[in-house]
Amino acid sequence: MKRTNDQEERFIEAFNQYNDALFRHAFFRVSDRQVSIDLVQEAYTKIWVQITQGTIVDNFQAFLYHVLNNLIIDFYRKKKSSSLDVLSEEGFDPVGSDGEEIVDNAEKSQVMKALEDLSKGDRSVIVMRYIDGLPVKHIAAVLGESENAVSVRLHRAIKKVQSKFPN
To answer: Are the C-beta atoms of residues 123 and 30 closer than 8 Å to each other?
Structure first.
């Protein structure tokens, strides 16, 4: 029973630590504030149920992103309308964990357009790495791929985005 209590405490710590980042991730992917809130809440609910049933989670961050990504995929399977243009219309302003802006306002729409042109998989790794700040190791765990495969995908996706901008 002690192990379950330990998992429950770690769950609460993970909630406090990753809630904002998970919301940003979901919002960046689905472009709807309420849907993002619902998806993050559903991810926490699913994980809580698993923990209370005895599941041991070693890496809460990776597990949370994995569950959330699956929920986002399910959302898009149910509803096929959304784009990154909605983000710029709603004034979405991605910020890093230290509060600094990631992208200068003048360049934001260009970057969003370049990201929109990427495949969902490439866009996902870019968002997880540079918006959510996840290390490659955690992205690999979320996607069920090797760290090398994720690094290669990141490198190629960055090259695609860079090709959209003149030097």
So the answer is: no
